[in-house]
Amino acid sequence: MKIVYTDVLVIGGGLAGLRTAVGVKQRGFDTIVLSLVPAKRSHSAAAQGGMQASLGNSAMGSGDNEDVHFEDTVKGSDWGADQRVARMFTHVAPKAIRELAGWGVPWNRVKQGEREAVINAERVVITESAAAHGLITARDFGGTKKWRTCYTSDGTGHAMLFALGDQTVANAIPVMERMEAVALIHEGGRCYGAVVRSLVSGELTAFLARATTVATGGYGRIYRVSTNAVICEGTGTAIALETGVAELGNMEAVQFHPTAIVPAGILTTEGCRGDGGILRDVDGHRFMPDYEPEKRELASRDVVSRRMTEHMRKGRGVKSPYGDHLWLDISVLGKEHVHKNLREVTDICRYFLGIDPANDWIPVRPTQHYSMGGIRTDHRGESTTLKGLFACGEAACWDMHGFNRLGGNSVAETVVAGMIVSEFIADYCADSASDINVSTGLVREFVERERAQLDALVAGRGSESATAIRQRMEEIMIDQVGIFRTGNELDRAVTELEDLLRRSRNLAVRYPNPGANPELVAAYRLPKMLKLALCAALGARQRTESRGAHFREDFPQRNDRDWLNRSITTWPAPEASLPKLDYEAIAVTDMELPPGFRGYGTRNHIDHPDSPARHAEIEKILQAVDADDRHARQRALMPFDHLLPEKYRPRNQRLETSA
Amino acid sequence: MKKSLLPARLDLAQSITGLVLAVFMAFHLIFDSSILLGAGAFAFVSGALECELFFGEKIPLITTAVVIVIFAIFIAHAGLAMRKFPQNAAQYRTMRSHMKEMRHGDTSLWWLQIWTGFAMFFLASVHLYIMMTQPQTIGPAGSAYRIVFEWKWPLYLVLTIAVVLHAAVGLYRLALKWGWFEGQNPNRRRKTLKKAVWIVTVVYLTMSLAALGAFIHIGLTGQDHFGNAVEGIAR
Amino acid sequence: MSNETASAARTLTLRILRHNPQDPASEPRWARYELEEYEGMTLFIALNEIRERFEPSLQFDFVCRAGICGSCGMVVNGRPGLACRTLTSTLPSEITLAPLPAFKLIGDLSVDTGQWMRGMSERLETWIHEQAETDLHALEERMEPELAEQIYELDRCIECGCCIAACGTARMREDFVGAVGLNKLARFRLDPHNARTDADLYELIGDDDGVFGCMTLLGCHDVCPKELPLQTQIAFLRRKMVTVS
Ligand SMILES: Cc1cc2nc3c(=O)[nH]c(=O)nc-3n(C[C@H](O)[C@H](O)[C@H](O)COP(=O)(O)OP(=O)(O)OC[C@H]3O[C@@H](n4cnc5c(N)ncnc54)[C@H](O)[C@@H]3O)c2cc1C
Ligand code: HEM
Ligand code: HEM
Ligand code: SF4
Ligand code: F3S
Ligand code: FES
User: Fold this and answer.
1) Does C168 contact chain B (CB < 8 Å)?
2) Residue pair B230/B224 in contact by the 8 Å Cβ criterion
3) How far is CA C29 from CA A163, C15, C48, C98, in A?
4) Does residue C190's CB lie within 6 angstroms of at least one atom of ligand 5?
């Protein structure tokens, strides 16, 4: 039995994983990164549009600061977010941008003088100040009050991931590619590392660490069509679930992106609409203003996706062999803008659709895009129930996104969480309480269990087809646990998924090779994915309200009275076929921003009984504080500084000193 | 340890020697083709190059001296360029199969340069040796005699084709290698350069082969193609 | 989206070079598979279909399936390129697929570009060597907007390895850095945060395994799926490295 020891095992080589590894390494701890693919190929590379941070440099971002970013984030989350975490996040995001600039991310810059932009399908002239010239600029994204999304053309994730990948090499951090964590090793509520399978040789290795970090990204591939990379199968989240100890949060909160191309499901960035692109229906009519007169195409993603689906249900979609779709029109932006600033989009249209988006409309429809749910952690990134297990990035429910994350907040989360969580991990490792004193017997037990399961699959005594079951799961998820949900359909979904999970314990593998064997890989991942699907479906069935991305047609109101809480799922026993569902209350009484109207969608929600009291209290607190000192006001309402690692506490400098 | 500056120097030297040779050849082939204007023209040109105008008589030693210089540059260039040849059978095979699969224009052009260079290594050495040792024979009659009766025409035929291709392609690659003439749109410029390569090749080949024909004509008939008698090529 | 019946469906023949170096008994061989083509079919779709229907053991790599991540470089009808964004309709009905040469073969169409790139990165130290540590709390250093765009232009490399596979020099001489590394150095050279001088770069690429090894074959430039200006960048570095000396 091969055992590798390290201080910090980081499972996942995307933005979140790499930033965490760099952080702990710089604090002097040994770390190893595991990844299914070369780190720079992680899904983070696909993020196009940008990263939110309230620098406030550009004219349209002027006056921006942490407070505005915080408010947007919390409203975007439909009040599902942990407001303290959202505060920590918005405070550190500008630091993250600046750190990355120092590491070479070529953020687009402000150019002084006049320039043309398209806002609301009209050309307008924006004048940038000379003082801001050369500072990092930002573009508009859905659900934000200010232009706050920093970008490098439309390859932001790529530029960020490559800068971090380079830092990983600079810090001599080993990245073990084509290595898949298949189980976490744990005992007595403490995580000790993971059992890891080589995708090349099939060999199993035990990695033991003081701290284990899961940064494995989202689980979009449980859906039939997803903008996610094909490796986004959520196995990292699933192995945490399979411990039976770690909790997952808000698994039903799944985001759909309004504009993925049809049929390939490849994303065209929100930047298309941010830059002024518009949506049209079968008649070429721009329909979003009919539904959302104020925010139009730039309402938050869940809203736009629902409106599009609604519009298609009314028969206004364009028929195609691959189902209905609508049009995204960026030709209004002009050829030069499209070919220069939306280059990846141009490439995608050219290669996958054979069209030039500067002339032609792009066929789009809402498609699964982001997993708000994940491993539930405290503000330090540690699992609430399994000590020594940390999580960050899309795999985590740290919880700054609540039930809907804003565009550009996700890559920002990955690096910000990486910065913050790595400090807490380092603190944890510095404490002798993190010493590993685990018996090899336990390690052997975990390795042997995995080996036995793999051997059973290879022995080929099963009869079910992994492909068939997987396809069915994907269909159920997209049809019944999708954008619009109803109790009846969710009931059916849960029942059928349960059945699929049972059947998945009897899989057949045709090609009996224990080493590199894509079929075997698909087979052992399937039950893990089904478990995640069940968590999402069951969570959705139980949640009889609509919040953020979770929309119940039979319960269209947001119901703060009964549902201002986080869904928490655990897997009770290996042989169980359903997760256990609990709820974690979100207290209104200490919120900085008590629940209210999001500013888009319909204004109909059921108030929380504590809301009026908290509103009144806030009023009173604010009266006692200097109205001009926004920091003092914020501190009086909901202090969060003390939660941050010390090095990230200083205030962010801005061009406008008043901000 | 500081890295040696030698590789930079050698790379530069390879290009400079190539460039000098190419420029030399551009003139050489024009002078050589003066035969197309008649035996008198060639006699005049070859005389002029041996400073007849200066001293009133030909000084063959000047030719010998120039040949020595060119020979030296030639050997230097060949030596430098040979570092780029496939070093062993495995490399050779890899390159062959790579080219066959890729069917890529510029890679094939390089292969052409290797082979033409390889051929010139022998052919041009013979030519240079003769020019160095028998400069006094240069002239409409002597040259024609050499080409026809000393059986040099096959050598010149191959050498002409080789040198024109090698030099034209060499200049094209030189421009790309150092980023000359990139202009606003390097991709389009590259296409233009490539077109120029083919034009130069065709012009020079036509001209030089016609000149070779003219020499042969003189050798066989004793007169140039304008009918002027050329003395002194009796066998 | 035209109607599916509009064009007569072709039958595609895919010839795939198969070999599993993990298995001592395996020898490289060509395997043939036949598929019905349909509209919008890419090599990503075709290969997955082959795996699902005929050949569960077939190895290949796709991650983003959108031409963004660089995982799926392979030799398609003789030319290195990204399989995921290659529509079969742009190819003849007989398609040959082989793994990228010059990289370690993992199996069938899957090669180890990751470790190769890491090695290149370590060798050339392809990261910003900062002049001073960034103050995270202060305004960022200014940069001309055009310069930022220029850097991004070169930053777009996805490390797919196509330029290495297409380079005769890299094929013949294993130690040659290749276009990907040279482009990276050109990219970092532009960055004002960067503290390395040309003399420092000379230490890394001032020899025949470095920039002087490049024979201007331009296969790299012509296959790069991101259409990076490799030709001009290598020329630029060559000029700089010669003037350093
Ligand atoms: C098309 C697209 C565009 C997007 N655009 C934006 C945008 O413009 N702005 C924005 O803010 N967000 C955007 N997002 C979201 C954002 O890109 C992701 O949420 C974010 O990059 C996730 O980063 P991560 O580090 O958490 O995970 P990932 O980048 O997904 O990395 C996961 C890592 O985990 C590894 N891994 C997974 N499972 C295992 C296992 N079992 N064992 C070992 N390793 C494992 C993988 O190999 C990988 O290295 C976009 C998402 C998509 C799909
Ligand atoms: C200083 C050096 C050189 C001198 C003085 C010289 C001289 C001559 C002369 C006099 C001729 C006419 C034919 C003859 O008399 O045999 C000739 C022909 C030729 N030379 Fe040179 N030469 C020189 C260098 C070179 C080199 C370096 C090359 C090529 C590598 C070259 C290639 C040729 C060719 C190809 C022809 C035949 C042209 C045709 O087809 O008409 N020469 N040279
Ligand atoms: C023995 C004879 C010769 C040999 C073996 C030879 C070989 C080569 C080779 C292999 C190259 C390619 C180098 C590279 O890829 O970097 C080259 C380049 C070149 N050659 Fe020659 N050559 C010979 C003679 C000549 C002659 C006579 C000329 C001029 C007419 C010439 C002009 C050039 C030029 C201009 C280049 C491009 C320079 C460069 O790439 O740096 N060569 N030669
Ligand atoms: S330079 Fe181009 S071909 Fe080479 S690795 Fe980068 S993207 Fe691929
Ligand atoms: S193909 Fe190779 S030889 Fe140079 S120009 Fe490109 S690196
Ligand atoms: S799979 Fe990512 S580029 Fe092809």
Assistant:
1) yes
2) yes
3) 40, 10, 20, 10
4) no
pTM tops 0.80, yes or no: yes
Q: How many CB atoms within 10 Å of residue C11?
A: 9
| Strands A204-214 vs A51-52: parallel, antiparallel or unpaired | unpaired
User: Torsion-angle region of residue A125: left (phi > 0), alpha (psi -120 to 50) or beta?
Assistant: beta
Looking at the complex, report in whole angstroms how far the Cα of residue C68 sits from the nearest Cα belonging to chain B.
23
Q: How far apart are the C-alpha atoms of A376 and A400, rounded to whole Å? A: 11
Q: Where are the domains of chain C?
A: 3-111, 125-244
Cross-chain residue pair A98–C62, CB shorter than 8 Å: no
Touching subunits of A (3+ CB pairs, under 8 Å) are C
Same fold, C3-111 and C125-244: no
**Nearest partner of C221 among B18, B200, B102, judged by Cα:** B102
C3-111, which class in CATH?
alpha beta
| A511 band by pLDDT with thresholds 50, 70 and 90 | confident
Query: What ipTM, to 2 d.p.?
Result: 0.94
Write out the two tokens for B63: 């030719």
Residue C161 CA: which ligand 4 atom is closest? 5
Chain A residue numbers with beta carbons less than 8 Å from the beta carbon of C70 are 40-41
- Axis-axis angle for helices B140-149, B39-49 (nearest 10): 110
List, as one string, the DSSP characters of A442-476.
HHHHHHHHHHHHHHHHHHT---B-HHHHHHHHHHH
Catalytic residues of A: 257, 273
Q: Chain B: which residues have CB within 8 Å of chain C?
A: 2-5, 7-12, 83-84, 86-87, 91, 94-95, 98-99, 101-104, 106-107, 110, 173, 176-179, 182, 186, 190
Cα–Cα distance measured from residue C48 to residue C65, given in angstroms and rounded to the nearest whole number: 11
Determine the distance in angstroms separating the CA of C91 from the nearest CA of chain A, rounded to an integer: 13
Amino acid at B158: V
What CATH superfamily is the domain C125-244? Alpha-helical ferredoxin (1.10.1060.10)
* 3-state SS assignment for residue A369: strand
Instruction: In whole angstroms, give the CA distance from residue A451 to residue A459.
Output: 12
Rounded to 5°, angle at Cα A430 from A428 and A432: 90
Taking chain C (245 residues) in runs of 10, the rounded mean pLDDT of each run is: 56 97 92 93 95 93 96 97 95 97 96 97 95 92 96 97 98 96 97 93 96 97 97 97 87
The tens digit of pLDDT for each residue in B200-221 reads: 999 999 999 999 999 999 999 9
Residue type, B121: F
CB-count burial class (<10 Å; 0-12, 13-18, 19+) for A256: buried
Work out the end-to-end distance of chain B between its first and last CA atoms, rounded to an integer number of angstroms: 67
Contact A108 C149 (CB under 8 A): yes
Angle CA B154–B157–B161, to nearest 5:
145
Of A225, A257, A254, which is closest to residue A237 (Cα–Cα)? A254
Spatial contact of B65 and B131, defined as CB atoms under 8 Å apart: no
In order of start, what are the domains of chain B with their CATH numbers?
Answer: 13-221 (1.20.1300.10)
Report whether residue C71 contacts ligand 6, using a CB cutoff of 6 Å: yes
CA–CA separation, B73 vs B85, rounded Å? 19
Cβ neighbours of residue A628 closer than 8 Å, sequence gap 6 or more: none
Q: Which of residues 153-192 of A touch C (CB under 8 A)?
A: 153, 155, 158-159, 162-163, 165-167, 169-170, 175, 177-178
Min Cα distance B68 → chain C (Å) is 29
Rg (CA), chain B: 20
A97 Cβ contact list (under 8 Å, min separation 6): A51, A53, A55, A107, A136, A150, C140
Q: What is the pLDDT of residue C5?
A: 44
